Amino acid sequence: MKARYLMMILAGCLLASPAALAVEAGADLTQSTVGYVALLVFGFAYCLVMGEEYLQLRKSKPVLLAAGIIWLMIGVVYQQMGQAEAAKAALEHNLLEYAELLLFLLVAMTYINAMEERRLFDVLQSWMVSKGFNFRVLFWLTGILSFFISPVADNLTTALLMCAVVMKVGGDNHRFINLACINIVIAANAGGAFSPFGDITTLMVWQAGLVSFVEFLDLFVPSMVNYLIPAFIMSLFVPKTQPEAVSEYIELKRGARRIVVLFILTIATAVAFHGLVHFPPVIGMMMGLGYLQFFGYFLRKTLPGSLARKRAVALANHDEAALKRLGSVVPFDVFKRVSHAEWDTLLFFYGVVMCVGGLSLLGYLGMASEVMYTQWNPVWANVMVGVLSAIVDNIPVMFAVLSMQPDLSLGNWLLVTLTAGVGGSLLSIGSAAGVALMGAAHGKYTFFGHLKWMPVIALGYIGSIVCHLLMNQHLF
Questions:
Q1: Residues 131 and 276 placed together within one structural domain of the fold
Q2: For residue 259, what are the domain limits?
Q3: 212: Cβ–Cβ under 8 A, 6 or more apart, which residues?
Q4: Rounded to an integer, what distance in angstroms lies between the CA atom of residue 205 and that of residue 104?
Q5: What's 343-396 look like in SS3?
Q6: Do residues 37 and 131 share a domain?
Q7: Closest Cα partner for 430 from 222, 218, 182?
């Protein structure tokens, strides 16, 4: 009964807007009832997303519901106008864009999960923890590694990996953990800004064909500046005291290094498909998933022989620990790695793409584009995109910019990629890395702990923009 009443109220809202029914497809619906309701639905859903940490509500849930409501309203209105095919075409266009990105991210996440299952990240973490570095060296080491790993492994995975190291050696030193987590968030976001594989926003720009794979490297130095300025200032407040070293032996599982090689080959395949035959990079990524599946088949088939050889060696050496480890070996399963992908993030991305696509069809993005990229200087508009991405997740912000289709130079497309990527570092809630670390280091890395250092982070943000404008002025 409640569902029936909800549908009646929804239909009443739509039919109460004669102006909306009088316009033709593609016309301005921003002043109609359906437009206002769509904005309210999206705004309310995003408030729930921003309160994810406190509500304990996964961010995909509100945007999935909002996307359905917005497109239901659009469908009813366009049906009334006799333009149902136009709405269907717009819906299918948005679905295709999402499908390409979904499959691309799914393959990348599967490889990262495979590396994690083969204990590659555990070995790296164990090495850092066992070396007995002092807090300041560890601060720089986790930051620099975050900067250089995130272009390949994505900023969220990298941040969580480095946070685990910081938590293990930091103990009860809340000040060090807070500073180190801020440093990791900044480094991971900055590192992800100069690579299509580092962040969803850069991936969207690359898949749209606006910036080539090699051209992203023009952002390397500005991204480095964005990280180094706040890192240097914050490092002055990190003590040089020595934490207690933790000795832990971690053994790589069979095939770990070969999976890294296959991932590099997969990236090369995706770049080749995009650069040579101008196909979407996702085709190359899916081919790369085939590489991993065949290698998984090889690992399963050769597992009995490998275990027999290792067991013989362990028995000869009377190595009880090795025998125990061999007893816990399980076959490698690619589909289990696929199931461990970050499905909340992937479904959240669906909701965002569909919500923003609906608002674009209603005319709101065209209106915003008119103000930002016609009345304002494009450079200032792109700087504001970065500031906005600190408050609202950078995924919907970047998707909105791409949906606006502003006429920008290569320099400005690189600028908006940079600002959307690193602007999220200004606040802890501005990026997936920051939100994840607030959960991983609960009570030690907090919103207000990050906010205290925002002026320093802003210096890095401004420095990276100035660096880009000076170094790449020939691209504008």
A1: yes
A2: 94-476
A3: 206, 275
A4: 13
A5: HHHHHHHHHHHHHHHHHHHHCHHHHHHHHHHHHCCHHHHHHHHHHHHHHCCHHH
A6: no
A7: 182
Q: What is the pLDDT of residue 323?
A: 46
Q: Which of 117, 245, 135 has its CA nearest to residue 183?
A: 135
| CB burial of residue 339 (10 Å; 0-12, 13-18, 19+) | exposed
Residues 6+ apart with CB under 8 A from 39: 359, 364
- Is 89 domain-assigned? no
For 37-159, list the strands marked E by DSSP.
none
Following CA atoms 111, 116, 120, 124 in sequence, which dihedral angle do they give, to the nearest 10 degrees? Answer: 120
Put residue 26 in one of left, alpha, beta given phi > 0 → left and psi -120 to 50 → alpha: left
C-beta pairs of 290-298 under 8 Å, 24+ apart in sequence: 291/262, 291/265, 291/266, 292/110, 292/111, 292/114, 292/259, 292/262, 292/266, 292/334, 293/334, 295/255, 295/258, 295/259, 295/262, 296/332, 296/333, 296/334
Question: What residues contact 63, with CB distance under 8 A and at least 6 apart?
Answer: 45, 46, 49, 348, 350, 351, 352, 355
Q: Which pair of structure tokens corresponds to residue 35?
A: 């437009």
Kindly list the averaged pLDDT for each block of 10 residues, start to end, along the chain of length 476. 37 36 50 89 85 76 92 90 87 85 82 82 77 85 91 78 80 85 93 84 84 90 95 90 70 84 90 83 90 88 72 59 50 73 79 85 78 83 86 74 82 91 84 76 81 93 94 89
Q: 323 and 391, same structural domain?
A: yes
- Of the candidates 151, 226, 222, 150, the one whose C-alpha atom is nearest the C-alpha of residue 415 is 222
Q: d(Cα 149, Cα 124) in Å, to the nearest integer?
A: 12
| Domain endpoint, select from 82, 102, 127 | 82
Which tokens hold the place of 259? 């999976």
Nearest to 162 by CA among 191, 124, 198: 124
Q: Specify whether 219 is located in the same domain as 262.
A: yes
pTM of the model: 0.72
One domain for residues 2 and 134: no
On whether both 324 and 402 belong to a single domain, the answer is: yes
Residues 473, 212: Cα–Cα separation, whole Å: 18
Looking at residue 161, its amino acid is L
- As a residue count, the chain comes to 476
Contact 239, 138 (CB under 8 A): no
The closest of 246, 237, 126, 131 to 182, measured between CA atoms, is 237
